[in-house]
Amino acid sequence: MIHAGVIAVQGDVSEHARAIERAAAAHDEEATVHEIRQAGVVPDCDVLLMPGGESTTISRLLQQEGIAPEVQAHVAAGKPVLATCAGLIVASHDAKDDRVETLDLVDVTVDRNAFGRQVDSFEAPVDVTGLDDPFPAVFIRAPLIDEVGEGVEVLAEWDGRPVAVRDGPVVGTSFHPELTDDVRLHRLTFFTDLVAEAAD
What we know:
Elements lengths: L1 E6 L5 H14 L4 E6 L10 E4 L4 H10 L3 H9 L4 E4 L1 H6 E3 L11 E6 L10 E5 L8 E5 L4 E5 L4 E6 L2 E7 L2 E4 L10 H7 L2 H7 L1
Parallel strand pairs: 1-2, 1-3, 3-4, 4-12, 5-6
Antiparallel strand pairs: 6-9, 7-8, 10-11, 11-12
């Protein structure tokens, strides 16, 4: 039984919950999903998901509810996190926006909404390290990863720019993998040998 926590203070929570359940089932595992809106839940979770949404609101509520230090402790313990779109912004080292109090979980600098407004949303096949076939990436008001730290692995690029990265147990994407029926990124984050070794 895997206890999966979805940061649920704001954003597309149910989509991530369904994705982690499907990803677990593909590995003959069962996932119990906890929607996290207050402190005290994260320590009981094996894996965490930080959804898209509005990064300034998410970061403010994580601090206000006392969830932020628990997420940082989760990562410090080597437990995996998937942070998508606004989740990546909040998890980053620097969002270049004083309104966002980042968690400094991923050594990247991001530009919020760099791919454009809602009307500029698009889907594109993206080659991701560790996946055999391109992933159908959905970009919605997506952030641009414009600086990557030395220890960060770039997993995918689009138009010559990083759109998926791994920093230790954290995978961050500019796009929304949870908005497709493809759960391979959730599987890559939570069910790889690297994750199994960290759990041991």
